[in-house]
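User: Please look over both lines:
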Amino acid sequence: MALDPAIEVRIRDAPLSVHLATSVDDRPHVAPVWYGYRDGTVSVLTGGKKLENVRRNPRVGLSIEQTDGHGGVEWTVTMLGRATVVEDPERMQEARGWIFDAYDDEGAAEGSDGRSDGGSDEGGDEPNDDGGVEPSDDGGDEPSDGASAEATDDLETDGGDDDPSDYALLEIAIGSATLQSYE
């Protein structure tokens, strides 16, 4: 689906997190993740519960909001889509490059609302000084200390249970999208 240009301009290259909602057996799961947007597709590198749920049910919901820096919200975009799991290491590495580019600047790493991505209790990542991401220490679903440094250095994601090889790229084809502006 081609998104409304007013939506595309807001979400393309925005250093914001998207709340990814998955559901299996009528049990919703929502977590903030970093994302990239290109040509009607939202891409996310992920693992853990999010990936497990998408493998069982590819229908997802997404929500992105821009705050005004004073506790208010400027706009919100909500989308419904269908996720495809991509496990090709080359495609995952390529996506990692362009997804994380939006978060490389020091100011962009925190997003416009002053929060680093991954502020959930479920396992997001926090930006590091050189624009990458490091596992949060909030008990989230990032690989354990026993994970190989090579595996986590080569492919940073938004988190995963305990096996760094159990990450994948989600390519989410957007089926519907709405914009609510509060300006």
User: Anything to note?
Assistant: Confidence is low (pLDDT under 50) at residues 106-162. The first helix runs from residue 5 to 11. DSSP finds five helices and nine strands in the chain.
